[in-house]
Amino acid sequence: MATQHKRTQRCTWLRYSFCCVAFLLVFGTIFISHFFITFRQKYNPPVDLKSFYVAYPHKYSFLLDQPEACKQHNPFLVIIVPVAPHEVEARNAIRSTWGNDSLVQYGNVLVLFLLGLPSGSDSEMQQVRIQQENQQHRDLLQSDFIDSYRNLTIKTMVMLEWLRDRCTQASYAVKVDSDMLLNVSALTRMLLSFIRYQRNYITGLVWYENVVIRDPSNKFYIPPEVYPYTVYPPYPLGMCYVISMDLPAKILHVSRNIKPIFIEDAYIGLCLEQLGIAPTSPPNTAQFVVNPPLTYDRCYYSELIAVITGSPAQLISIWVDLHKPGPACKVENHTLLD
Predict the structure, then answer these.
(1) What is the pLDDT of residue 48?
(2) Which of 75, 114, 212, 269 is the most exposed place for a label (fewest CB within 10 A)?
(3) What pLDDT score was predicted for residue 203?
(4) What pLDDT was estimated at residue 4?
(5) 110 by DSSP, 3-state: which?
(6) Cα radius of gyration rounded to whole Å, the chain
């Protein structure tokens, strides 16, 4: 009888111990889960997916426009330079260098600057200066979206709208960043070298298999919920690309089905993929340069079509040197980019 009683006590104790352990495990799991959820919410707040898209399509209007520019000049090539409102120095550097090329002067090439609305405490004064600048040069396009890095895709789509609606006379269009040194003559020669006018054509420094950034600390971060694939479709870098004039309308049409991400050149790649159009590398990719050599070489620069510069002053300096009298290259060094 005593033995049976001891066994009963032992079973009761074991069941009690098991219940305690089970309770502690469950409670511990709940506590730890709650701790990590709280920690993640505090230090890793939920991602606002809307912030990775831009407000497009939208009925944007032009506050400053040059609606008759293409009709008046009937250009072979129209160059659009997206630029921030306050970057007057960059615009003036282009106006005094490649934007004043003889092909521009004769009307074969048209150069226009595209900007959005200024922001900040001095935005009203900036707008006054922008209007005065346009009265002097008549080369500004300004739309009514806030000009910012996150709105570059809006800027690009507005550019395409302007080309579709205002410049069907041109054969090609170029989007080029304001820090680029552009060789207008070399670019025109490249386009004229084709046997026939190109359609569904977009070229520049094409990136293939560009990996989608998943690091939230990177400014190019895109979460999987916004774009699920690991690589982007091919697209030309936004620094400088050329398009045939049939493409603006096609890209704008297909963009209605693709939510626009803030990375503007990658978004163009998404639209091209939907259209079934592959970007084409230029005849000589070495003529489009992202990272030029640290040491300036006149011969090397004379062969380029588009190259990034460090400042408006550097752009002017290189341009002036390239246009000095005398050959740019010694005979033995003229095969640099062949």
Answers:
(1) 79
(2) 212
(3) 98
(4) 53
(5) strand
(6) 29
pLDDT recorded at residue 334? 44
Q: Shortest CA distance to 152 belongs to which of 78, 237, 227?
A: 237
Instruction: State the CATH class of domain 57-206+235-286.
Output: alpha beta
Beta strands in the chain (DSSP E): 62-64, 77-82, 109-117, 140-146, 172-176, 180-182, 202-207, 235-244, 288-289, 306-308
Q: Where are the domains of the chain?
A: 57-206+235-286
Give the number of other CB atoms < 10 A from CB of residue 10: 10
Which three-class secondary structure state does DSSP give residue 212?
coil
Q: Which of 323, 321, 327, 319 is nearest to 98 (CA)?
A: 319
3-state SS of the chain: helix, strand, coil percent to 5? 45, 15, 35
* Spatial CB neighbours of 154, under 8 Å, sequence gap ≥ 6: 54, 55, 56, 58, 60, 116, 145, 260
In this structure, the strands spanning 172-176 and 288-289 are unpaired
Query: Mean pLDDT of residues grouped by 10 in the chain (338 residues)?
Result: 52 53 50 48 63 92 96 96 98 98 93 97 95 98 96 98 96 98 96 92 97 95 96 98 98 96 97 98 96 94 97 97 90 47
Query: So what's the pLDDT on residue 50?
Result: 85
Q: Name every residue whose Cβ is closer than 8 Å to that of residue 318 and which is 6 or more positions away in sequence.
A: 181, 296, 301, 309
DSSP structural state of residue 150: G
CA angle 163, 50, 80 (to 5 degrees): 20
Write out the two tokens for 215: 């690091």
If you ran DSSP here, which 8-state letter would residue 178 be given?
T
For residue 176 the two structure tokens come to 């080029």
Please check whether residue 110 is in contact with residue 70, taking contact to mean a CB–CB distance below 8 angstroms: yes
Sequence letter at residue 299: C
Token pair in block for residue 229: 């694939």
